[in-house]
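Problem: given the chain below (208 residues), write out its structure.
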Amino acid sequence: MLRLWGRLSSINVRKVVWAAQELGITLQRTDAGGKFGIVREARYLGLNPNGLVPLIEDEDTGVALWESNPIVRYLCARHAPGGLYPEDLPTRFAAEQWMDWQQTTLNPAGRDAFLQWIRTPAAQRNDALIAASVALTEPLMAMLDAHLARQPFMAGERFTMADIPVGCEIHRWWGLPQDRAARPHLERWYNLVSTRPGARGVLDQPLS
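Solution.
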């Protein structure tokens, strides 16, 4: 049994749910964060001093982890070594590279547009923040499109842990009510990963 705390509206929680579903893990999820609270309670902070979501407890191993991409890595390493977690070092670290890039580069670039479009009332939206976010993000989308013109998946020839966080980010960016440039290779890849059975209930959910 894997216990997960976090609301599904969180991109970081979605990554963990998708990974667990790909791996066939029995998951018990408790809404937490935002209006659901819990994250400032003493027990939660004892396991996750960051006070954010997600948090997992793996009852089989006694492991408690926070930070979404390390959680995805852990689950894939534990349940799919040589599969979603590549064993050969070049592929593994290509996957690691793109996972870190999603969290440190792509996510910060797109954050303001998401917050303004989805979580800010229309009368209070800051168009300058949206425009700046678009200006940062669209070159990264072009970079992804060029990368995926050379290979079918983020880390090479097959679906790995790297495709999960990047897929969640593309779901969020393309879900915003704004125009976007055609990216044929990125679209081809996203159509593949978003229709995987493991992505059901994650990439088919509206943004909130």
